[in-house]
Amino acid sequence: MSGHSKWATIKHQKGAKDQKRAKVFAKLIRQVEVAAREGGSDMDANASLRTVFQKARDASVPIDTIERAVKRGSGELDGVRYEPANYEGYAPSGVAVYVECLTDNRNRTGGDIRSTFSKLGGSLAEPGAVAWQFERKGFVILPKTLEEDDIMLVVLEAGAEDLIDDGDTWRVLCEPSNHTAVRHALDEAGIKYDSADVTMVPTTTVKLDTAEDAKKVLRLIDALDELDDVQEVHANFDISDDILASLA
Description:
45% of the residues lie in helices and 25% in strands. It is of the alpha+beta class. The protein has 3 domains: 13-74, Integrase, N-terminal zinc-binding domain (Arc Repressor Mutant, subunit A, Orthogonal Bundle), CATH 1.10.10; 83-132 and 204-247, Alpha-Beta Plaits; 133-202, YebC, transcriptional regulation domain (Alpha-Beta Plaits, 2-Layer Sandwich), CATH 3.30.70. A hairpin with a 3-residue loop joins strand 1 (83-91) and strand 2. Helix 2 (22-39) packs across helix 4 (63-74).
């Protein structure tokens, strides 16, 4: 199991514990608004809206808050207009970093991203410089109390590609277009899961051999993630279990 996957799992578990934070709510609401603006307010016809709606509900965002966000996005209510903006760069040790944002001011967001990279030993890169090192995948994290065969029987028919042993948990991977179907199949089978989302998975990784190198990279990742306009931060580092445990 790669340290990157382990760190991603920890991050999502931490997000579940901290889900009532205003910043988490704000990020999810932006995603709902943009999905509604780009594909309309009909969730039956808008797969992206369906996905982020469920993501917001999983994080306990109130249903009326989500519905208002859908109306703002579709133009039924006035609101700030957010648009996607992605940034690419390198963390210390040559780790590739892909940052997904939703912003109403690209100049402000770009300045914040550049400044954060610079302050913490990284560098911003040109568009396309690191994106090729990632592919978008849906995932579902399940408890290890479940049997591998029981999970496989359910998720394979729904379009899952792989079931990965992450030590303390199972991780199902699928194409983003099959993510809703995989979740629905698990729900129908009465199989409970810890978290589910669509993310960028690295196709190659950079191994960080010391705790100091790992600290430098994670410090930058965390700082980027704290910026208001940042939705997701993806990186292709690989940290050993021992080093990750010492940092945790």
